[in-house]
Amino acid sequence: MAADVIGTSELIALMALSATLFLFIHTRDLNSKLKEMEVKLQPDEMVSANQLMTSLEPFQLNNTRKAKQEIVFFNRVPKVGSQTLMELLRRLSIRNEFGFHQDRVQRVETIRLAPEDQAALSALVSSYEPPSVYIKHVCFTNVSEFGLPEPIYINLVRDPIERVISWYYYVRAPWYYVERKLAFPDIPLPDPKWLKKDFEHCVLSGDRECKYLTGEIREGIGDHRRQSMFFCGHHADCLPFNTDGALERAKQAVEQHYAVVGVLEEMNTTLTVLENYIPRFFQGASDVFWNEISRYKPINKNSFKPPVNEEIKDLVRKNFTKEIEFYEFCKQRLHKQYLALKLPEKP
What we know:
By secondary structure, the chain is α/β, with parallel strands linked by helices. It contains 15 helices and five strands. It is globular.
């Protein structure tokens, strides 16, 4: 009987030791995971999420205060949801009583401008009676460099791979050429073989259109393969594809000049930041977007765009490293702006 008691005691002790060891290992792993999460949450300043909430202030992240004229300059990037934001601004212009102006449809849309054309554009933006919005597909143009007051710059970005695929099929969509033909009847129709070329085959075959080579320069009206060019500006350093120089210039423009750069994939956050950082123009934006535009009027959706295999997207990502870095930079900045508002959590 004593032996049985001893055996039972040893078994209990062994079980207790095992439980303690299990709890130790589990707690250690949990702490390790928490540490990993904390590192992922840390922004550039290397502070924790709680510290970020208390240290950031909207004033520090709001370039709207730098504006010297009550004019929003939306130099919209193609295929990032800019048509939808343009429609939102059109409706808000009635609701919030401000002028709405957009560039006319052009035969050849040039996004990179010579210095004299930049000066003319700056003068045009400044000519509208405030409060007003001016919208145009064009690279970032520093209006203040031409002795004119700084406007309020805004824009949107999108996952760069999804965007380049969207652009590829957008310029091949039948309705795109119908619209172009109606506006400019003498424009020749493209080669049917080019229209039928799918993105996956274009990438795998090494077609020049789908080769994304670091340092490559495509002169002319502008390089629509990348969205960072719309932020980099008109400088020669902005021309080479996927380079550090172009990336840093684009980041600098966002940090120094843009009030808000929204993210298509995070529209709730984008609208909240726009409403709080530029209230004169965006008051009621969430209500108009979700209850009027998004529900009843999908804009510019291309039903001719087929799905693209994830393996093909991964191949393209390897050559879009700077574009991806720029996108993540804009996304992090938007998150900082949102966190700085210290809004109460929704129930």
